Amino acid sequence: MEFNHVSLSLNLLPKMTQQQIATHISSVAKEMPHFSILDILVGLLPLKIATNILEFVAIAPQTQGNTINTKIAKKIANCVSNWRFEVEETHGFRHAEVSGGGIDTQEIDPKTMQSLKQKNLYFIGEVLDVVGRRGGYNFAFAWASAYLCANNIKKGKK
User: Can you give the residue ranges of the RsdA/BaiN/AoA(So)-like Rossmann fold-like domain (predicted)?
Assistant: First the structure.
């Protein structure tokens, strides 16, 4: 399988604007001046991601809150809401797995698999944020959700 380079852009905190992220960082830094910037970010993101963000923006993880100005907060916020990088390689199809993510199941009708936001738009299988055990369970869910979806579409065609 041939692999082409892919550029990705991730918004790690989609429910917050860049300004809200920057304001949060600045506020915590002001209230907790002894906290490091890594301590502050770990309040928002997992440790490994926070560490990578700081490396990406070239800010030392041990930078103390009392030295964090608006410019630094905005730089970090920009990266958190628009983290861009190149995927240079994969471990191949043999090691490919999905661990989570996808369309929030609260946004679909579980009896029909139809979107609650857009009529006649359906989501099934691994495109949904459903995580299960390995060993064929994803196939069982894919088939079951496809069955529900197909039956609903069929009913609508009558």
Answer: 83-151
